[in-house]
Design brief:
- The complex is a heterodimer.
- By secondary structure, chain A is α/β, with parallel strands linked by helices.
- Chain A contains 14 helices and 18 strands.
- Chain A has helices spanning about 90-100, 115-130, 155-160, 175-185, 200, 210-215, 225-240, 250-260, 275, 290, 300-310, 325-330, 345-355, 365-370, and strands at about 15-25, 30-40, 40-45, 60, 65-70, 70-75, 100-105, 135, 165, 190-195, 205, 220, 240-245, 265-270, 315-320, 390-400, 420-430, 435-440.
- In chain A, the strands form 4 sheets. In chain A, strands 1, 2, 3, 4, 5, 16, 17 and 18 form an 8-stranded mixed β-sheet that branches. Chain A has a 5-stranded parallel β-sheet with strand order 9-10-13-14-15.
- Chain B folds into 2 domains: about 10-130 and about 285-295, Aspartate/ornithine carbamoyltransferase (Rossmann fold); about 135-280, Aspartate/ornithine carbamoyltransferase (Rossmann fold).
- Helices cover about 35% and strands about 15% of the residues of chain B.
- Chain B is built from 9 helices and 9 strands.
- Chain B has helices spanning about 10-30, 55-65, 85-95, 110-115, 135-145, 165-175, 230-240, 265-270, 275-295; strands spanning about 45-50, 70-75, 100-105, 120-125, 155-160, 180-185, 200, 215, 250-255.
- In chain B, strands 7-6-5-8-9 form a 5-stranded parallel β-sheet, covered by helices on one side.
- In chain B, strand 8, helix 7 and strand 9 form a beta-alpha-beta unit.
- The chains are: A alpha/beta, B alpha/beta.
- Chains A and B meet through helix 6 of A and helix 4 of B.
Chain lengths: ~450, ~325
Amino acid sequence: MSKTKLEMRAGESANLLLRGATVLDPAAGIDARHDVVVRDGKVAELAEPGSVDVAELEAIDAEGLHAFPAFFDPHVHLRTPGQEHKEDIETGARSAAAGGFCGILAMANTEPPVSEPADVEALLVDARAAAAVKVGFLATVTRAMQGEELTEMASLRQAGAAGFSDDGLPVRSANILRRALQYQRLCGGTIALHEEDPELSGSGVMHEGAVSAALGLDGVPSISESTMIARDAAIAGYEGGRIHVQHLSAAESVEAVRAAKAAGVQITCEASPHHLCLTDEEVRSLDPRRFKMNPPLRGEADRQALIEGLRDGTIDCIATDHAPHAPEEKEVPYEQAAMGVTGLETAFAALHTHLVLPGTIELRLLVDRLSVAAGFFEVERPSLAPGSEANIALCDLSAGWTVGEDGYESRSANSWCDGEELTGRVLMTLAGGQIAYRLRSFSMGVAA
Amino acid sequence: MKHLLSIEQLSKAEIEAILDRAESFAEVGRRDIKKVPTLRGRTVVTLFYEASTRTSSSFELAAKRLSADLVSVKAAGSSVDKGESLKDTVATLSAYDPAAIVLRHPYAGAAQMVAGWADASVINAGDGKHEHPSQALLDVYTLRRRLGSLEGKRIWIVGDVLHSRVARSNLIAFKAMGAELTVCGPPALIPRGLEQLGCAVTHSLDRMGEADVVYALRLQHERMRESFVPSLREYAAHFQIDSRRLGRKQLLMHPGPVNRGVELSGEVIDSPQSLIAEQVAAGLVVRMAILYELLAAGDEEPAPALDNGRATPIGQPA
């Protein structure tokens, strides 16, 4: 069976010493202070703090800093090909690196959508030329996302497609999804699903509830999402297929996934930082740049259900659904504005600020959920265990910063936490054994 | 107050100040010369992205009665037809240095956005299904004249609340003035969660007899095609306000334009209980009061000195 391919720009392998870092890798069972030795792009050694003194390594004083396995985001929009005015592979990958991510998977709802093996091959070539982190590409489930005919899934997998998704749209036809899951037995590749009943969503632009009633905005009911999850989980269960549910937003959806897991369906799912941190109350501002996305921000009970799902493992991972848009697509009244917010550069800091610092979730849970998704798409999980490829996010958990004050690495500025003060910042990212990012103000190589 | 973007932004005292001002303009309206110089030399732009008869004409006349220079832009036939964005259109019109921009737009929040871009005072003349604050003010004005006070009065709002910006603004305004609100209509036309705005929700006119005021909303024909209601006949059978359902002491209001024979029967429209014509008349003086409140109320009364050096008090003919 074919394999997921990720590509990044070839460069110099890192040789570094992170002196006295607090290393936390829940999956590898590491939680202690170490001198982290990175040699030739690999984690060579986790040594006693202060025990390593090697002249040929760049030494970084990581006293008081945390080293995590770098994050992996299974759901970003790089807008390439066709909408490079919003983002391209280079800017999107840079944005990922700035957020501590070592790998990302790009959605296929580009212009045109990624439906042909040659498209996947071309994008991987581009990533090899331009990406600071590892980038993989999903292909569409149906040709041109029309929902009518399957793509050549086996050939797409041979070309390196990381999986399949019509994200942006649901797979409307139950029968088409069934056929895709049957074909999956032949070619592998997780099918990632944007779950929404288009008729129930109708002209909705925000969560249906008291806030939409007050604002006179058409609502998207929670059942638009949860009924499709229930349907698709039943189909996956019947065919023995493997699905990944994207961007859960509603309490009913968490319940539907929980039930599917209990029934033994091969199902994983994700929640986004904005759904975990915000509710539809934000929409009262009528600011589409920060608060219009699909699925919409929902009520506080929904947010609490997502957090509970994250805690009990119903929600497997966090994905940003990084969705860049140009200013003119957002500087219009709410109903007319494009849907989506950026999230790569702020995912860790926002969740650390909103959920970890108040004690809602533990740091180790956040770190785990931010890197675990690699495995769902047959990518090796980032790890700090000695011998692993160096994929490291070096973070200062006490650093305060204002989002967007120095601009963005992304080409777009529609961050949901634009202007917000967050605590916790990524100082440096190692991806694929290379230094992918260093915060400008983080002076390097000064440790005595 | 710099802008009028929503009723939600206004306190009861602010609502009453505007209504009191409107009373004084009503007095001006009974004179032979109905014009006052308050806004002489200042420009009011009306920018309408949707069809409107009474709102646009009454804002335009209100501006003229206050001696403002008026620029009326309708989206149809303007550069909007050529694909100009709202932001660019506002930038263009701002070059005339208007004191106020009166905006009607099919989408919620448009007036608020314009307020962020323009130096002018922005008046929301209807934004999507969100708010229509000047309508709510003129409705409160009309009722206050008839009832003295809205305190403790029972008001029923009947019909298509889901698609109605008038319903939303009036719910907030009537409630702010102390009225008790009940909303009545077919379930699919009452937004989920509406009761959290502080009103009772019912789907039957059976208890409508308790109302002091019945406020009927327009039912648009296309709602049937979207299955909100099965047919106009079915709607009328259950929700039409007719002489059988409307008691003799109950007052009837409607924001217009009326679908005769759908939400209202012909005989109640023309009955003495109907305040529909009074609502239209109130539209002019209330909109004069809004313009005055936003553009001139900060000035010392009487109005600013004119070129003859003599101040002309508000209410004096120019």
